[in-house]
Give the backbone structure.
Amino acid sequence: MDYFKLTVREISEAVQKNPAEGSSVLKSLASRAEAVDPKVKAYLKIQKDFPDSEKSAKGPLAGVPISIKDNICTQGWETTCASKILAGFIPPYDATVVRKLKEAGAVIFGKCNMDEFAFGSSTESSAYQKTANPYDLSRVPGGSSGGSAAAVAADEAICSLGSDTGGSIRQPASFCNVVGLKPTYGRVSRYGLIAFGSSLDQIGPITKTVEDAAILLNVLAGHDPLDSTSANVPVPDYTKSLTNNVKGLRIGLPKEYFAKGLSPEVEKAIRNAVKTYQDLGATIHDVTLPHTPYAVAVYYVVAVAEASSNLGRFDGVRYGARVEQSNLLDMYLETRNQGFGAEAKRRILLGTFVLSAGYYEAYYLKGLKVRTLIKNDFEEAFKKVDVILGPTAPEPAFKIGEKSSDPLSMYLSDIYTIPANLAGVPAMSLPAGFSGNDLPIGMQLTAKPFDEETIFRAAGAFQMVTDFHKRKPQLG
Amino acid sequence: MSQKFDIDSIAKLARVSLKPDEKVKLAGDLEKILGYIDELSKLDTKNVEPTSHVLPIENVFRDDVVKPSKVRDEVLDHAPKREGSFFKVPKIIGE
């Protein structure tokens, strides 16, 4: 049986019924990965020796293999952030999310490729390999969680975890025709996630279906004493929101998301989705998020400032690689020169600059103030509507190499996803159509803080009446 | 907000040495990105409070309780260099 084609729900049901099926699932998935990963290159590492499957035959994720982005710590497994500077780093502990997954019965299957330190939108900045989009191997899978999204799309993962600082779960999900959720800031513990932008980062699920995302969020969400920014807010059963009923749901369309720069094919798919919701009984309203045009600029102040500070710890002393020199300062300089790739250096330098004496107020403080305006935009909009609908990315997946020499054009591919991180609100990308050349198009649903339930309600209803998520790539 | 972006002093602050060819490329990229960021100066933010964090969480405390821990050796095990229970670094004095 081709277990690798199954969903999280289907596998956990099968394994709970018959624990012996757990090892068949793993074998099936391993041979699928062996067949397709040489083309897709989604994995940095795949587990070879699996723990006793009987042990993981209980819990909501009984026997479910899950693949983990390589910036999330896995005890005893090398965790590199796809950077040379962390080569050989073997965490002595599991991230809270990994511990929770194991306790729920899940089996860690592999570590997924990503942009180095999650700096990028194409997974091209990985120090190890470039991941291909399963729907067109000459194109990028998106990023930075490109390996996590491509693995699920190629059926070489049942589900995966990504992290999202400015769209790094949602944009690759949209490029790869899978479901990707960035939860509310504070909803999921960041303990064990190697930090990029600490006020923006969230871990979230990447799955084949909306239902699977709800099942995973049930396990991932909740307060963690080990993360002082995790929120002590009760966790509902998200699967209960999958009612397939959106009658009376108020959906907002932000006019700034349908402006210049949006590809006509993407716009058409999103307009069709709006029509679907109208047919289902939802009401459509125009809303405005007037500071959207400034979001990318704010992000490239706030996120790089936090990144330059967070990456100060990679100094060749405590973990990862060291380039030996005769004195300490030269050792720092050379280790960081050789350990970091070009995009990491660009962001470290930019972040150092915006925080430096003389420029702090003009850049960093200014950025934080405009961040307030962006957050206020969402608060105003959510007075009128329950959920905001728009495109996830301005265009479908671009060609490998197309944007890698122009950082600014790469940054602008996150224009619709960055605002949710700045405002801390939850947002999901889900399959909403295909372009003329058969590339996936994703739509984004955004809700109020801690209202993932409304996202699941809207997304679940859409997926019930559409088949986009069932259209698989042709990988031979 | 126009300025001369001094790549050497920033690289020094960031503790990264840069190869000459990468210096030219990075300085050019950063000038361009900063030019884009300068768009922010168009907005009047005189009466706007900064948002450094979106959640209303402040000063999370816990009791200071000693718990057993075995991580010291595991942590030191993957240090590039150690000596006994210490991280070992090149000499600092005499730089």
Notes: DSSP finds three helices and two strands in chain B. Strands of chain B lie at 82-83, 86-87.
